[in-house]
Design a protein that fits this description.
- Pfam families: Methyltransf_11.
- This is Methyltransferase type 11 domain-containing protein.
- GO terms for molecular function: S-adenosylmethionine-dependent methyltransferase activity.
- The structure is a single chain.
- By secondary structure, this protein is α/β, with parallel strands linked by helices.
- It has a domain at 17-163 and 182-211 and 263-270: Vaccinia Virus protein VP39 (Rossmann fold, 3-Layer(aba) Sandwich).
- Helix content is 40%, strand content 25%.
- The radius of gyration is 18 Å and the shape is globular.
């Protein structure tokens, strides 16, 4: 599949046979990711600026940009930002969002996170936010990040992660997989750290914290059918008490109102 984009965009060709579900899901829901409160206004966007300390001569890559929120936050502080995504509709939506917001130093490219179409040592900064749990091969993704970063380049990873406990991990991945058919797997923070180290990226700082979701908006954003919504609701309502405690599943009048998952924010430097 090829697609060209103006304003510095380039065409890329790759086999998407294993990732069509991602394209379908995000193509159908692109606008929701621009307006989603957790994506558009998360406190991690301020942390991204604080931790990355962008400079006006930095060249940046934002992988799996979604609604383009990280690119939008960092663009005023860098020389240029390459905005990439696997899904054409998502990338078009992000481009419109950034252009309407006055971002004029962005370029847009269709790109698979596991097969980036860039030369070695192309970027000073790479970011990827709330996306890697959709990637079938996290090792390939981190390897590609390490390849395209320049020496001493910075990489910011933000994603939902699974608890170390295997039963809790299986639970959150089951719930996510039913709600969103494009979900692959939330790794643990320890697993991510291992992949970073394996690929020459030194963890400089990290933060583990809870992330609260308003259940209905989270469910409606990606659940493809009423059957999926019912299944997810039923699983949370009837979860074991220790699961309800860990994920802070709040129930009001017999329905789930909110719950929490684990989020990991990590800054790594290419050694």
């Amino acid at each position: 599949m090829c697609r060209s984009y103006p304003n510095g965009g380039i065409s890329v060709q790759f086999n998407l046979s294993s990732k069509e579900r991602v394209q379908k899901q995000f193509g159908q829901n692109a606008e929701k990711y621009v307006s989603s409160e957790g994506h558009a206004h998360g406190t991690d966007l301020a942390l991204a600026i604080e931790w990355l300390q962008p400079a006006l001569d930095d060249v940046m890559l934002d992988i799996a940009t979604g609604g383009g929120h990280v690119a939008k936050a960092l663009a005023p502080s860098v020389k240029s930002v390459m905005v990439s995504d696997l899904t054409p509709a998502m990338l078009e939506t992000a481009r419109k969002h950034l252009t309407d917001s006055g971002v004029d130093n962005a370029h847009y490219v269709l790109a698979d996170a596991e097969h980036l179409p860039f030369l070695d040592h192309s970027f000073d900064v790479v970011s990827c936010r709330i996306a890697p749990h959709h990637f079938p091969d996290p090792d390939a993704f981190i390897r590609e990040v390490g390849r395209v970063l320049r020496p001493n380049g910075r990489f910011l990873l933000i994603d939902n992660v699974a608890p170390d406990d295997s039963a809790l991990s299986d639970f959150v991945n089951l719930v996510e997989g039913i709600r969103d058919p494009s979900h692959v797997k939330c790794l643990t923070a320890v697993q991510w750290q291992s992949l970073l180290e394996k690929n020459g990226l030194l963890l400089a700082r990290d933060l583990s914290r809870k992330k609260k979701f308003r259940f209905q908006s989270w469910l409606d954003r990606m659940a493809p059918t009423e059957a999926h919504r019912l299944a997810v609701s039923t699983i949370l309502l009837h979860a074991p008490q220790d699961f309800k405690t860990y994920f802070q599943i709040e129930i009001e009048d017999g329905t789930v109102s909110s719950f929490e998952t684990d989020e990991w924010i990590a800054l790594a430097v290419k050694v």
